[in-house]
Amino acid sequence: QVRLVESGGGRVQPGGSLRLSCAAPGYNINAYTMGWYRQAPGEQREMVAHINSSGRTMYAESVKGRFTISRDNAKNTVYLQMNSLNPEDTAVYYCTAPHMGYWGQGTQVTVSS
Fold first, then answer.
1. Which of 27, 34, 49, 86 has its C-alpha lying 20 to 30 A from 67's C-alpha?
2. How many angstroms separate the Cα of 40 from the Cα of each of 8, 22, 109?
3. Would you give the distance in Å from CA 33 to the centre of its chain?
């Protein structure tokens, strides 16, 4: 079982930015498709973005143009750059290797004035 560790969450004002990171200490995740999902209170978990091993990306419509998923293979890390945040982006964000069934513990993102 690969342990995925998220970091970078926090509280930000509307219009602000955050960058989430996902690392897998001791494991090489470069060959995996990786993704970010989020779950708001009372809502189902939803896909935010995916990136495959070749760097091809896909996004949920609600975050297109605002969020960017990327990976640094040298650092064995996946990122989610989130810009123009709004209160509807408030959720726990999870890193995942979806095809392998690996999930992180999640990191809270709160967008509030």
1. 27
2. 17, 19, 10
3. 13
